[in-house]
Amino acid sequence: MTGNQRLGCVVAGVIALIAGSAVLLQVLLGVETVQAQGRSALDGIILVFSYFTVLTNTLVTIVAGASALLGERGGFLSRPGTRAAVAIYIFVVGVIFAALLTGLRPMSGLTLAVDNVLHRIVPVLFVLYWLVFVPKGQLRWRDPIAWMLYPLLYVAYSLLYGALAGRYLYPFADVTVLGYGGALANSLVILAGFLGLGLIVVAIDRALAPAKPA
């Protein structure tokens, strides 16, 4: 293992600890809030893990943790393609929060700190980790199609959750306000953004790939 690979493992480990700790604290805070409303702890856990932000930070924790412990030998979890996909997902978390969700809910103290870690710090750290430490030159132009599975499944789940729970997780997908047409139109725009980002990431990967011997 080269010095750069060792440093990459350390950075991945730090990111896994930060993201994992923030997810755990978010779960505890969410359960506390839900229990104060007279609902069960299980309701709180389901609610917290229904948010794309928490699910994606959990993915970051798993993938970064595997990369820290196993390096480039970690199988599927530490493949360059897997880490590129997770970099896209967590980047979208940061972008959507900054563009559409900032300031919608008043927060302070630990709640605000955890929110900033999940929406701001982890996205920046993991995208930089991908740029600096993940080997380049192994992505294919068809990879972004496969990477769409996670956001597609989430869109379907969030609509189902909203229909069953009577509350929607994000204002841009709130069927009670926008109708199914508006919610689906917004979802399609976001999904198109995922696909476009995937193609950009493949282009960056190829541009940063080591030069092949003549």
Task: Explain this structure.
The chain is mostly helical and 214 residues long. It has one domain. It has helices at 3-36, 41-48, 52-70, 80-101, 109-133, 143-147, 149-165, 175-207. Helix 1 (3-36) crosses helix 2 (41-48) and helix 3 (52-70) runs antiparallel to helix 4. The longest helix is centred in the first third of the chain and has 34 residues, at 3-36. The protein is globular and about 65 Å long. The model has no long low-confidence stretch (mean pLDDT 91).
Figure out the total of helices: 8
Q: Uncertain spans, ≥5 residues at pLDDT below 50? A: none
What is the helix/strand order? HHHHHHHH
Multimerization state: single chain
Number of domains: 1
Main sheet summary: none
Overall morphology: globular
Number of β-strand runs: 0
The portion of residues assigned to helices is over 70%
Distance between the termini: 26 Å
β content, as a range?
under 5%
Structural class: mainly alpha
Rg (C-alpha, Å): 18 Å
Mean pLDDT: 91
Features:
214 residues, mainly alpha, 8 helices
Task: Give me the secondary-structure topology.
Layout: H1 3-36, H2 41-48, H3 52-70, H4 80-101, H5 109-133, H6 143-147, H7 149-165, H8 175-207
Helix pairs in contact: 1-2, 1-3, 1-5, 3-4, 3-5, 4-5, 4-8, 7-8
Quickly describe the structure:
The chain has helices at 3-36, 41-48, 52-70, 80-101, 109-133, 143-147, 149-165, 175-207.
